[in-house]
Amino acid sequence: MKILVLNGSPKRENSDTMHITRAFLDGMKEAAPQDIHIVNIIDRHIEFCTGCFTCKRNGGECIHDDDMKALLSEVMESDLLLLSFPLYAYGMPAPLKAFIDRTMPLSSMAMKKQGDRYVHVGQADFSHLRYMMICGCGFPNSKQNFEPAAAQFRLMFPDRHTIITVPENPMFNAHEATEVTTPRLALVRQAGKQYAVTGGIEDDLLAEICSPMIPEEMYAEICNRKM
Ligand SMILES: Cc1cc2nc3c(=O)[nH]c(=O)nc-3n(C[C@H](O)[C@H](O)[C@H](O)COP(=O)(O)O)c2cc1C
What we know:
This protein is of the alpha/beta class.
């Protein structure tokens, strides 16, 4: 499978979240060989969308001449688009959002009704693409934290999507936490293998991966102690 990973963490390979993403990809590789390309979004030249809509009236041609053209081609050639990012202000970090805004050329100006909402008509066939969001956050709570990012992802990619959200994410970069992060990463690898074989992750396994690794009060106490 051709997998395009967009790493939205400005910390590049030192990203807490990338520990989860790498474990997931390792699991996928256990099931079958995978063609994986990881892009650190922070290192790409991506101008902000100006909102001119030229791309939607101009056969997909954006006014900016930057790295987006190559990235959009790569998205279209992929089987799986995997967004790996830390939760920032209940959403995605700005450089990754800049990328998302610049996907405008992939759809036309025309609108169509889909269920009870309207979407732009695609300028290409996306039916081969699957979408995955792997997002880690700093707080121990998932509720009242991940919902906006997960809802945005579902609205952007309503079909064939999988969402993994992991609280207490900085623990993946803490050596003293390996006792709890190692078994959690083993579960993530299991999920990756399952996803490669079946195209999904069993509900119970996903719920376990998305749950706190240690009780939230204990996590908060440890974090506060380090201040
Ligand atoms: C600008 C900024 C905003 C953040 N917003 C949130 C937030 O809304 N909720 C949360 O739980 N953690 C938040 N965090 C914490 C990060 O999600 C957390 O540190 C994460 O593990 C960083 O992952 P990374 O190493 O992959 O970049 C924020 C961190 C930064 C720097």
